[in-house]
Design brief:
The protein has about 280 residues and is an alpha+beta fold. The chain contains 5 helices and 13 strands.
Length: about 280
Amino acid sequence: MLEVTRKLVELLDLSPTGDDHFQGDSEDLGFRNVFGGQVLGQALMAASRTVEDRLPHSLHAYFLRPGNHSLPIDYEVQRVRDGGSFSVRRVIARQDGKEILTGSMSFQGEEPGFDHQAEMPAATGPEGLMSESDYVEKLLPKIPEAMRAKLARDRPVEIRPIDPVNPLKPEPKPPVKQSWLRVQGELPDDPILHRCLLAYASDFSFLATSLNPHGVTFMSPKMQVASLDHAMWFHRDIRMDDWLLYDKDSPSASSGRGFNRGNFFNRQGVLVASTTQEALIRRKS
């Protein structure tokens, strides 16, 4: 396992602090607040630690307050129900005694059933595409010095956008985005880890889909952007150490909020997961 990937796996490896209570460290990715995907991945891992022989199939979470990336996060898991087929957990994430996220996660054992899926959309393959790190390297001389070190860091999740947006000079585009992503290096065969890693990665560049038509990015002057909620459904087995296509669209923006949807397909065209998110996208006066 690559060192940068090992650090991410360790970030998701929470420490038990009591009955159904866990603590996770925070990482500074250069954003003003804790990266929402980190809290999602850790919350899902906390819930998973209280369930046996069942995998997460869905999560629904609300971001309540911005997190501080210089402080650890405490996770409380509440065992809502263990039924014959499904288990439900409620998770509350806190810093300084204040809730920053609350969510519900549902788990299911393996079960046969009907099977159909949407077709994988047309997309340029990952080979030959530049990674986000490559783009950042080209833009570094134009980025404020205080942000350069964080943006130029080694990244465990490699993202290769299709038709990328220049964050410094955005132009209006349709409300759709596509990118390929994967965790760098090999990962152990732990299906829970792979799902938690996908929850972590699903928040990268997601809300930006709703910014596309308006010719702005999170770096545009006077923009206030933040994830408000996040939902995911895990349909089939996932490998985060192989390429996944993240196909996103934004059917609506209104009242200072942007709504985003996404599907994850593996290279064989199998739909492995879906996600939705509403985000605050506000231009401050």
